[in-house]
Design the sequence.
């Protein structure tokens, strides 16, 4: 495969600082970087096409790859998912992830990342176990992955900070820098304040970030009040967890004080509206978070609590839930929602992705506009296009996915793995682990 790619004759949705949309636009990629963006005529005049792989994007939109800011590799989607969060965690999620071995995690990760790539996701912020298997799967399939362990106090029999340290030492910076390792904290109900303080010390020592579930449910808030005498974000703040390199997932029931702490510490928030809805956890105060100036991205959470990894669907929820609950159709307009799924997510992770701008990493997707989803479409009307991308499209509109300058899906076919084999093996791994944990709860 050529190291040089020219994508021409497309509608280039840059998501840059001025939200430029270029009709009959082109971009060039060399190695892992975007090197030029402009009109097709200008880019071809400047760059020439010699030796380049040319992708014709006629009737296609060219966008930055999507960033799934809160993610778990999933093994058991749809399995006993009639239960509310706490019961589900105890009856299904923890027994399954306690039984995980390298093999099961590897195939589950390949199946999960494969579905994400097919929905236009180029970066996952994945908290799970068996990070060696996840890193190997990410390296193989070609996705950009920030991995963190499921760290909890020892009596819960999940991961320890030492496991996370070892994963960092073994895998951080591998796959040409596509794989990074953060320190993960499962959530406050399974953590002591000492563990939280130690997690921050470890993250600072390693020079890496923190990924934590925070303030996801009313039961979590109540648990925090009883155990610590404070709300979850106050506990996290006191332990030093919050900060610019901390991704706090959910943040559904934030008080005004908690929003102020998020703002003051520059903490990044992953908004996961589909998961929050499915698990009956509520509706996050997204308008207030954004008004406070907090950087908010979006995540699907896990296929167990979504049940899809389609970030287009998450974008739609990220607008519609707030409009419905506030009785206000002016909220979460499509360009702002698309920004959460691209540039905000990239910024949260400190990545040079999320925008089609020269010098940025080449994580790019091509969306097929010749479908019912994008019909009708007013020519050269970006507002109409943004509306379709957020309200009408689903992940099957993504035709091509490029990550770090490599084409990992083309014409909806994954180029780096045998997709049918991955699905077979992921299914077999699920059956094996379910058998090990004794079947349905
Ligand atoms: Zn989660």
Sequence:
């Amino acid at each position: 495969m050529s190291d040089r790619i020219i994508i021409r004759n497309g509608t280039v949705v840059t998501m840059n600082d001025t939200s430029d949309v270029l009709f009959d636009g082109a971009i060039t990629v060399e190695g892992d970087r975007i090197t030029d963006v402009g009109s097709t005529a200008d880019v071809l005049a400047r760059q020439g096409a010699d030796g380049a792989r040319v992708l014709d994007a006629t009737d296609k939109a060219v966008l930055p790859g999507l960033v799934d800011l809160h993610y778990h590799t999933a093994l058991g989607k749809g399995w006993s998912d009639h239960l509310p969060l706490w019961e589900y965690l105890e009856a299904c999620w923890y027994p399954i992830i306690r039984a995980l071995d390298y093999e099961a995690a590897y195939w589950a990760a390949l199946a999960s990342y494969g579905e994400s790539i097919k929905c236009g996701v180029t970066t996952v912020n994945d908290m799970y176990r068996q990070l060696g298997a996840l890193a190997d799967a990410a390296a193989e399939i070609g996705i950009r992955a920030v991995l963190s362990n499921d760290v909890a106090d020892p009596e819960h029999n999940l991961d320890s900070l030492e496991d996370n340290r070892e994963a960092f030492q073994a895998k951080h910076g591998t796959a040409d820098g596509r794989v990074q390792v953060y320190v993960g904290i499962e959530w406050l109900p399974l953590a002591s304040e000492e563990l939280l303080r130690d997690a921050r010390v470890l993250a600072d020592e390693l020079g890496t970030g923190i990924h934590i579930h925070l303030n996801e449910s009313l039961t979590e808030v109540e648990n925090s009040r009883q155990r610590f005498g404070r709300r979850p974000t106050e506990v996290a703040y006191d332990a030093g967890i919050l900060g610019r390199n901390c991704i706090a997932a959910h943040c559904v029931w934030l008080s005004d004080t908690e929003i102020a702490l998020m703002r003051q510490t520059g903490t990044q928030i992953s908004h996961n509206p589909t998961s929050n809805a499915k698990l009956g956890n509520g509706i996050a105060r997204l308008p207030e978070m954004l008004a406070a100036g907090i950087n908010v991205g979006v995540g699907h959470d896990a296929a167990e609590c979504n049940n899809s990894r389609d970030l287009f669907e998450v974008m739609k929820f990220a607008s519609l839930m707030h409009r419905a609950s506030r009785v206000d159709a002016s909220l979460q307009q499509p360009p702002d929602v698309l920004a959460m799924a691209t540039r905000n997510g990239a910024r949260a992770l400190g990545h040079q992705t999320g925008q089609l701008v020269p010098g940025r990493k080449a994580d790019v997707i091509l969306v097929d506009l010749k479908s019912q989803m994008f019909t009708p479409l007013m020519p050269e009307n970006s507002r109409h296009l943004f509306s379709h991308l957020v309200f009408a499209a689903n992940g099957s509109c993504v035709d091509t996915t490029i990550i770090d300058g490599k084409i990992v899906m083309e014409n909806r076919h994954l180029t780096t793995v045998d997709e049918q084999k991955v699905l077979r093996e992921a299914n077999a791994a699920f059956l094996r682990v379910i058998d090990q944990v004794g079947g349905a709860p």
